[in-house]
Amino acid sequence: MGLMTGDEKHGPAATSTLDALWVLYDRVLRVTPETAEDRERDRFLLSKGHGPMAYYAVLAAKGFFGEELLPGFGSYDSPLGHHPDRVLVPGAEIGSGSLGHGLPLAVGTALGLRAQGLTDPAVWVLLGDAELDEGSNHEALAFAGPAGLDRLHALVIDNTSATHGWPGGIASRFEAAGWSAATVDGRDHEALYAAYTAPHPGRPHVVVARVEPKN
Fold it and tell me: Which value, in Å, is the radius of gyration of the alpha carbons in the chain?
């Protein structure tokens, strides 16, 4: 991440996700540069697209593109924009940055895979806690639980940046809609891995990763 310089980097939005992304790509996701087009691959959708530096750093570390691209982050002729573009960034499943779209897209992806008889690929989507203020997320999470989308996983980075917060905690909102839920320290790699791999038969799963407050 230190290679990416310049203004308007949304630094906290990126640094808050770094540990959670690394554990996910290093130990859980079944996707590599060689299998990025394989229909049996796991899918990762970055909904919190306004802070993509950690995402780019992890993709580079995993070989989706060369580290020599990182210093050009955000420049006019760089594929690594301030918001990821799926047609420019190898390994990116969606274009994102306008908040509130990733979870609905992940629900649709999980439904589409199920409709095709693909029951092994997992679908992961990373959101920010403030992003949950967007109403589209609530329609999506209210649907996913009763639909039993057990290959769907949401990863919520909680850096206490939501305007109003959540009475009872973020996990309670998902649990009320029939999701399995775990809340962990977003800097603890073993806790993240255990939460990512916890069984949740018949239900979608959310991991709330708490990190230091944004402000």
Answer: 16
